[in-house]
Design brief:
Helix Hairpins; 344 residues; three-stranded mixed beta sheet; four-stranded mixed beta sheet
């Protein structure tokens, strides 16, 4: 079905200024107001006028409409998207440590950033992706304490286990600072673990299979709390940040759940109407073309866009252009000449 031409509804050109759009809207709103217009269809027409003005009066919506034929692009529900990962990473022991911490005690671990590259098709339909990365985990020899097996960290003698020391600035002024001996941990290690050299960490290789849902977009990020590096000497883990890079397609452009396609149709079909075969991500489908279809018209193919796991379905928007032969045959020239005479 054809997408409403908002410019035609307001009676303005496609390069109309905002002032021209506003004036056209006000004129139509007065003419179609139910109190002034007894036409039973006036109220419905006014709704379409309001819809057209809502889009064309907003620069961002208008830009989307000019390019894709619609201003309403649906995004991806990241709540449902995130829950898949949260459940998945809990299964690997991520996120099991609390994130609350203060200056006293072991510091927070470093966050990890991983980039996952997807083809257009993988992002559209969803895919299971295998990734591998290096991660700092608690030392298996000392259990993350940093102390040699058989020994334990001891209370810092400088701060008395507080992790901070108070220094006098003269008079009644006192400043609390991180303890320089234990670096705020409140403990020191007299006999460090040989494997981790007292850090309580070792580097391991992590291999995971990620079930990615359909609809991931280029540049989308997702943060997994507690999925990063473990903190030194038992500190809470950092986060794992996943960044998605989606390759471009040679035919389609995606925006949210919708897919945009430009294609040419024969001049005869544009004039007389008919059906054309249109490529979609779901296979080739037939699209009806009405008589007198103009170049630049945007047609909507329902539910040919992204299908999400929660049941939402995007559309495919097809912008048609009229295919004019560069070198028409003699027969084509003869028919076009006759058509030209009839049009006079």
């Amino acid at each position: 079905m054809a997408v409403d031409d908002y410019y035609e509804i307001l009676g303005v050109s496609r390069n109309a200024t905002q002032d021209e759009i506003r004036k056209a809207y006000r004129k139509l709103a007065r003419e179609l107001h139910p109190d002034r217009n007894p036409d039973k269809n006036a109220e419905e027409k006014l709704k379409r006028v309001n819809e057209a003005y809502d889009v064309l009066s907003d620069p961002e919506k208008r830009a989307n409409y000019d390019r894709y034929g619609t201003a309403d692009f649906e995004g991806i529900d990241m709540d449902g998207f995130g829950s898949i990962f949260e459940q998945f990473f809990r299964g690997f022991g991520f996120g099991g440590m609390g994130r609350g911490f203060s200056q006293r005690g072991p510091p927070l671990g470093e966050s990890l950033r991983i980039r996952i590259r997807l083809t257009f098709e993988e992002a559209f339909f969803g895919v299971e992706k295998e990734i591998a990365f290096k991660q700092k985990t608690p030392c298996t020899t000392c259990g993350g304490s940093g102390a040699k097996p058989g020994t334990s960290p001891v209370r810092c003698r400088t701060c008395g286990g507080q992790g901070q020391v108070v220094r006098s600035m003269g008079g009644f002024m006192h400043v609390s600072q991180t303890c320089p001996a234990c670096h705020g941990m409140g403990q020191t290690i007299e006999s460090p673990c040989k494997k981790c050299r007292g850090t309580g960490l070792e580097t391991t290789r992590k291999e995971l299979k990620l079930p990615l849902p359909p609809g991931i977009e280029d540049g989308m990020m997702h943060k997994i709390r507690g999925g990063g590096n473990a903190g030194p000497r038992g500190g809470p883990p950092g986060d794992l940040i996943i960044v998605f890079e989606v390759e471009e397609h040679d035919q389609f452009v995606r925006k949210g759940l919708h897919v945009f396609l430009e294609m040419e149709i024969p001049y005869s079909v544009a004039v007389l109407g008919g059906e054309v075969e249109v490529p979609t991500m779901w296979g080739v489908s037939k699209l009806k073309i009405k008589k007198g279809t103009k170049g630049g018209t945007v047609l909507r193919m329902r539910h040919k866009g992204v299908h999400t796991n929660d049941g939402r379905k995007g559309d495919q928007l097809v912008r048609v252009e009229i295919k004019i032969p560069e070198k028409p045959t003699k027969e084509q020239q003869r028919i076009l000449a006759q058509l030209s005479e009839l049009s006079l």
